Every structure is written in structure tokens, then in C-alpha cells.
Amino acid sequence: MDNNKIVVFDTTLRDGEQSPGCSMNTEEKIKVAKQLEKLGVDVIEAGFAAASPGDFDAVSRIAEQVEKSSICSLSRAVENDIKQAALAVQKAKMHRIHTFIATSPIHMKYKLKMSEEEVIKRAIHAVEYAKTFVDDVEFSLEDAGRSEISFMKEVMDAVISAGATTINLPDTVGYRLPTELGAMVKELTDFANNRAIISVHNHNDLGLATANTLSAVANGARQIEVTINGLGERAGNSALEESVMAIKTRGDAFGGVYTDINTKEIYATSRLVATITGVEPQQNKAIVGKNAFAHESGIHQDGVLKHQETYEIMKPEDVGVIKDSTLILGKHSGRAAFRDKITTLGFDSVSNEELNSAFEKFKILADKKKEVTDDDIRMLITDESLNQDKIFELVGLQISDCSNGVPTAAVSIKHNDGTMTDANIGNGTMDAIFKTIDRLTGYNGELQSYNVTSVTEGKDALAKVTTRVVFDETSPSFVGHGLSVDTMLATANAYVSALNSYLSQKERLAKKTEHQV
Ligand SMILES: CC(=O)SCCNC(=O)CCNC(=O)[C@H](O)C(C)(C)COP(=O)(O)OP(=O)(O)OC[C@H]1O[C@@H](n2cnc3c(N)ncnc32)[C@H](O)[C@@H]1OP(=O)(O)O
Ligand SMILES: CC(C)C(=O)C(=O)O
After folding, report:
1. 201: closest CA among 159, 250, 166?
2. Superfamily in which the 393-514 domain is placed by CATH
3. Ligand 2 within 6 A of 136 CB?
4. Using a 6 Å cutoff on CB, does residue 100 contact ligand 1?
5. How far apart are CA 494 and CA 235, in angstroms?
6. Among 19, 303, 397, 405, which has the minimal tally of Cβ within 10 Å of its Cβ?
7. Could you read off the pLDDT of 247-295 as tens digits, one per residue?
8. Domain 7-277 belongs to what topology?
9. How remote is the CA of residue 1 from the centroid of ligand 2, in Å?
């Protein structure tokens, strides 16, 4: 094993999905997993297979479709969780089971209600049982950040002897300061003495997640658990883009360590995750925020114009931000220029159907907008690939509303080769649209969240709408995406898109159950 290589373990699809409002459906998770593979992550934690049939389905389908990254599922130190994890990852070319139990006094006493002896017994059994399915077993000492070093050593000894190949030391509640976490990692790395890889998984409750990850690397950790855009439970996890770019930019400070991440794919991955979850990184977010490479003040602009490195420690191109695109697309552009542009933007696996449909939308957009920007094109392609299931398709929308009038929506929807039209009134325009769609489709959605952002600046900017809708009490919420220069049209499309997502997931799970019976 190369001692300078840092294993990048991405948990966007597991811990990232634990961010409130960030759940993704199976198709969306597959898209993210394939992009993570392209990004070059070593391990993809694809979910927690035992958590629900939907999670199991997502992990197993990712296992079937991703080849270059190892696929992993999380499981408690519980036999059935481990078995579900093993079944879900079994078809992957490379796979791992990640099992865990908490080792801090507070978790053992109040949450697990177990003694230290019981925890060690459960940990050993979990690893031994996982080993009956796979060779690669990771064990996490949950809440390591608040655990006692002497007890952690006992647990580590026991699980390494049982066959654990990676030992993860999560700072579950983001409690540790970088100096303290570094000291803990150093002591436990020395203790492990190369019998297992030492990993860290840092939460951001005090805004220290990435600093802690880097301190761990400087002190011997050789796996980092990270998420795209820093998503994760509560304040999130250490962001992949931050840790990886810090290692790349300041490798000299870490004794020459490196990752195998293709950093040019970072921006595309961040955009994909933001679009799918509807959660945009803050504008001043390091590496992927809208302002990360923007220079506002005169002295800075003057400096950058004279020599880029006066105010930039990384090149935007190194993380895949394309600033100087020379090919301007507009209404006179053809398919060749469009294809060339999307390839330049990094979309090299777009099918012909996706390209043709996106090209049609581009032409409509180009008629309405003076200049179609790279961000517009990026959104058109992403939206196209996210809205493949067209069980219901919105084909017409007319709204009327005035200050003293009654908000009304007339909607036409295509379904099974037929088109249905209906109209309804509501408390507001959006309410009227949703009520009409509900009546036409026969489903009654409950809107949980609604988010609208503009893709670029200007009065003619594209509106990107993300809706999160619940369609029945037994299913989770489903995310829908809509894109248009007209916000209400984008809203209607996003609502229909969430319904399509719900119906296709339901259909797939029903087919799966039929097969199993
Ligand atoms: C720090 C982290 O991010 S951990 C990962 C968090 N992810 C998730 O929780 C995934 C989503 N979770 C779920 O779907 C559910 O919680 C399930 C399916 C895992 C379990 O559901 P339930 O059986 O209903 O249990 P519930 O969630 O109410 O409580 C968790 C139980 O697991 C126990 N437990 C928690 N962690 C572990 C562990 N690592 N090993 C063994 N048992 C554990 C708890 O003590 C509790 O046991 P109790 O019911 O005897 O008190
Ligand atoms: C289960 C572990 C890895 C975790 O997510 C945490 O402790 O935060």
C-alpha cells in the first residue's frame, strides 16, 4: 500500500442524504454515483441498505452499474443490517461493508444502554459476521471524538483481530478542535501499527470539519470520509472539494500525500448534487460557491489581470469551472456547436435522445434569451437527464391572476397517448396549478418544500424550481425539477416531475416484489 495515497470515501449518498430535505430517489442516486465514479472516488457509500426497500434498491442498483469505485453500505452492528448490506453490494466489482457501534460513554449509557463489554462483543461479532460475506470490512467507533482513548484501543484491537481492514474514527458531533483530533489520530495510528487503514469522518457543528480532516491526514489518517458540497446530518460533513483541493494545493504541507480525484470533475459533481437535492452551496462556499473565483474590487481585478496568481491560489479550470468559453451559443447555433459545447462542459455520456431533446429546448430558450450561457446549457442537460420518466407530461399551462381576481389555472397533460385538460381556482396561482394537476392525474400531492433560483442574472434568466412532494403516507417525499424562463411553468413542470419520480419508483419496487414472490 502506497503510504502517501489518501483513500477518498464519499458518503454523499448516505450521510449527505441525511441532510434534512436532501433525500434522493434511486435514479438520482445512480446519476450521482456514476458522476462520483467519474470524479475518481475510491469508495462510494451508496446508502444504508437495511433502512428501507428504497435504500436497498438504490445500493444494489448502484452496485450493478458502477465499476471503478468500491460500493459500500452502512449497517449497525446488527446481523440483519449486515446481511442486507451484503446482499445489496454483492454484485459490485469491488465492495465493502461498513459496520459501526458507538464507543463514547454518553452513547453507550443513554442510547445503546450497553456496557463496554457488550459493545466490544457486538463489535467483534459484527465484523466477524460481515467477513463471512466480504473481505473488505470497515468498522467505525461512532462518536470517537468523545470516546476514551484506552477503550478505543481495546475496541480497535478486537475488531482488527476479527478482520476489520479500515478503522474509522468519526467525530460524530463535530466536537473536536483540529489539534485535539490530530493528537487522537496520531496516537491511534501508531497503535494500529499498519494493521488497518485509519480513517476519519468529521462533522461540521463548529465549522471545523475540513480543518479536522486535514489535521487527521497530517497525523497519519489515510482515508477521509467526505461529501459533495459538505452535505450531511445537521451542519454537514467535511466537504470533498475542500479536503481534496487543500491536499492538492498544499500537498507540500502534508509530506507529499495525494488523492486519485480528477479535480476537473469537481464543479460538475457539485452542480449535479445541488440540482438534484435543490440545496445550493452558499455563494461564498470554498471551491464550488458562485463567488469562489469571482473578483469584485478594483485592486484585486487589476492584480488578477496582471498576473492570475496574485489573488488566486487555484486555477478555476483545475476544479472544472470554465470561465473563458469562446463559443457563444444563440439562436443561430446548430447541433454541432451545441454538442461541442456540452462536451466542453464535461457531459460526455449524454444519449442522442437526451441531446436532441435538450437541443429543442435550447432553441426555444435561444428565441427568448439574448445569450444562452454555459450555466443555462448545463442546467438544460441536467434537467433533461433528470426528467426521463414522462408518465405524465405537461403540455399546456394558462394562468390568470390579478390583484382583485380569482387565481385560475388551466392545465393540459399528456398521459398514455391522450391529452387531458382541466381548470381550477386556488388561493394563489401556484395553488391553482397544483390543484388542477392533482385533479387531472388523480393524485393528491402535499407540497413539503419549494425552492426557486435563477440560473444566471438578468430579467430573462432561466428559473430553476425544485419541489419536494409527498404523494402517499407510506412513501418518502419525492423531488421534482422544472426549468423555464417562466417561473410558473417551471413550477408546474417541477410538480409533475415529482409525481413521475414517485410513480416510477413505485412501479419498480412493485415489479421487484413480484419477482421475489
Ligand atoms: C451517526 C450516523 O449517521 S448513524 C446512521 C444514521 N442512519 C440511519 O439511522 C438510517 C435510517 N434509519 C432507519 O431507517 C432506522 O433507524 C433503522 C431501520 C436503522 C432502525 O429502525 P428501528 O429498528 O425502528 O430502530 P430505531 O431507529 O427506533 O432505534 C435504533 C435502535 O438501534 C440501536 N442502535 C443504534 N446504533 C446501533 C449500532 N451501531 N449497533 C447496534 N444497535 C444500534 C439503538 O440503540 C436503538 O435500539 P433500541 O430500539 O433497542 O433502543
Ligand atoms: C456511522 C458513522 C460513520 C457516522 O456517520 C458518524 O459517526 O457520524
Report:
1. 166
2. Alpha-isopropylmalate synthase LeuA, regulatory domain (3.30.160.270)
3. no
4. yes
5. 27
6. 405
7. 999 988 999 999 999 999 999 999 999 988 888 899 999 999 988 988 7
8. TIM Barrel (3.20.20)
9. 25
